Amino acid sequence: MSKDITKTSKFLSLLLRHQPETIGLTLDECGWANIEELISLSNQNKHRLDAQLIQRVVGTNNKQRFSISDDGRFIRANQGHSITVDLELEAKQPPEILFHGTATRFIDSIFEQGLTKRNRQHVHLSSERETATNVGKRHGKPAILCIQAEQMHNNGYEFFLSKNKVWLTEHVPIKFIEREQAS
Ligand code: HQG
Fold first, then answer.
1. Fewer Cβ atoms within 10 Å of its own Cβ: the N or the C terminal residue of the chain?
2. Ligand 1 pocket: which of 118, 129, 168 to mutate (most atoms <8 Å of CB)?
3. Is residue 120 lining ligand 1, measured as CB closer than 6 Å?
4. What is the pTM of this model?
5. How many whole angstroms separate alpha carbon 40 and alpha carbon 50?
6. Angle at the Cα of 11 (from 167 to 81), degrees rounded to 5?
7. Residue 121, Cβ neighbours under 10 Å: how many?
């Protein structure tokens, strides 16, 4: 990814997940921002942005973080919000096991409280161990947790699958979490 694209992706994540007010942008209740407005407010705030750059970020983004509406006028983040938005996700049956990557320094607290969503709208889980490892590395020395997702689901916990295939849930109680020992 070129430097421009990475920078823009980070900027869009900030605006569309956390702080649209930084440039005076408003999102609708489903998290959509009007692209024309986004471009104009960004440029007014000295962040160079145009339709082509947005298209490149959406198209090349390795994690498919963003979606454009069918009419091409709106953009939103697919997951990862700290602000409250309705992603219109349907509850879905998860696989038997899901993974969560975290840092070793959080382990004690996780085994006291379960996995909590912290600043975000959901706890983020992955069907792939490798993805979880990469998420964990962002925070420090990684630790992988195996989550008994099917059991949770059978016990009435809801799961959602974001458009970019991140599994989301409200909270994971301790009894469904097991730490995977490093091999
Ligand atoms: C930890 C990225 C102490 C949790 C990724 C994590 C993901 C606890 C951290 C997405 C805890 C929160 C989200 C507890 C949870 N005590 N620590 N009880 N419960 N934690 O960044 O899952 O690249 O909010 O383990 O790919 O790391 O931005 O969540 O370490 O999908 O698109 O608290 O962000 O996507 O950290 O990452 P985060 P996350 P993007």
1. C
2. 118
3. yes
4. 0.92
5. 9
6. 30
7. 19
